[in-house]
Amino acid sequence: MTTRSSPPLTLAAARDLQKMLGAEIGPGLGERELDAVEARFGFTFSADHRIFLAAGLPLGSRS
Fold this sequence. Notes:
Shape: flat
Oligomer: single chain
Radius of gyration: 14 Å
């Protein structure tokens, strides 16, 4: 059985997804900030999640 994986998320695609949220998007997290969150809470973000959080952070509630 062959497992098919999706292509990695790009920064542009992550920003397009964020536009669909209907929320204000603030600045994203840098590599050091992402590393610090992982170290503090003892887990590792997936590559796609890191790109999504680097693209920008949703602020507030949905419109």
